Amino acid sequence: MSKKDLFLQRLDQIGESLKNTGQALALLGLGSVGKELDRLDEYSDLDFFVIAKKGSKMRFIEKLDWLTSISPVTYYFQNTDDGYKLLYEDGVYCEFAIFEEKELADVDFAEGRIVWKEDGFDESICSPKDKSIRWKLKSKEWAIGEALTCLYVGLTRFARGEKLSGTRFIQNYAVDNLLSLSNLIEDEVDCYKDKYQNERRYEKRYPKTAKQLSEMIQGYDRCPDSAIKIVEFIDHNFEINQAMKRVIVDLANELRNKI
Which end of the chain has less neighbouring CB within 10 Å, N or C? Predict the structure, then answer.
């Protein structure tokens, strides 16, 4: 059996297990086991919601027999008040939460797929009210300004020996702002845009820009080199303040010479 088939079989088994408890209403598959089955692959995981009957939520949180009875479990821990992360011995990894019907209206989630439901269950409650993208670009000017100033602050942190903080400012925060400008650099390829994280499937959505990322994210000890590549990339694609660029490049070169 392929890993993809195993994932789908396990999800069906979870649905059957929930049915047998008599205390669940539905199983909602999310992500690559939800509405986006076309992107399911051997590295996917099982993201799902359990919709419990009124008063039964804690039964599913306090006792995981509805999962452990299906196949041996290697590891699990409760990561939120509502759910767990769990790994089966056969490599099936799960992230899930349990809610009662009335709670779903206040839960932020992407649209999923009903895997199992009790007869008479109202599927409409499993459709999120707000389907908008969460990581919208504020403005081109704001993103460029944030990227440039994050590069500068990151270099000053790196200069005083705060390499971890410097790495985050340069190779995380500045890059995140650069990525938010991607659709102004090249046309986006339609490939399951994630509601919450712009970096998901970025290499397929923006292949040309993605090829430049290895030079912008060079690692813990190469923040100055990364900063130079980032500011040069931004300058190549947008009109930026040249005085600020010189400050960043000069400081980065100064730090490169000290390494």
Answer: N
Distance from the Cα of residue 140 to its chain's centroid? 23
Successive 10-residue mean pLDDT values, the chain, 259 residues: 91 97 95 86 92 96 97 95 95 94 83 91 78 66 93 93 96 94 87 71 89 95 97 96 95 89
Strands 73-78, 113-117: parallel, antiparallel or unpaired by DSSP? unpaired
Residue 249: count of CB within 10 angstroms of its CB: 18
What's the predicted TM-score (pTM) here? Answer: 0.71
Give Rg (Cα) of the chain.
23
Three-state helix/strand/coil letters over 190-241? CCCCCCCCCCCCHHHHCHHHHCCHHHHCCCCCCHHHHHHHHHHHHHHHCCCC
